[in-house]
TrEMBL record:
Source organism per UniProt: Streptomyces thermospinosisporus
Name by which UniProt lists this protein: I78 family peptidase inhibitor
InterPro entries tied to this protein: Prot_inh_I78
Length: 71
């Protein structure tokens, strides 16, 4: 049986710091800070609710991050 992989640690980063930034700049910054997956979503997008370590979600409205959260 293969060993269960250990997920990498999440960056010590506050998602609220991205609110108000231009979407492209926020994505670049998130990757620089160690987020393995960055997902930009339109307001009201229907998404699954599974939590993924290392993923940062952005709700983007008019080209700017309106909300950001982990998972």
């Amino acid at each position: 049986m293969a060993p269960i992989p250990t997920p990498s640690a999440e960056p010590d980063d506050n998602p609220d710091a991205y609110v108000g930034l231009a979407a492209g700049r926020a994505e670049d910054l998130a990757r620089e800070r160690g987020w393995s997956t960055v997902r930009a979503l339109p307001p009201g997008a229907i998404i699954t609710m599974e939590y993924r370590v290392g993923r940062l979600n952005f709700e983007v409205k008019d080209g700017r991050v309106a909300r950001a959260w982990k998972g």
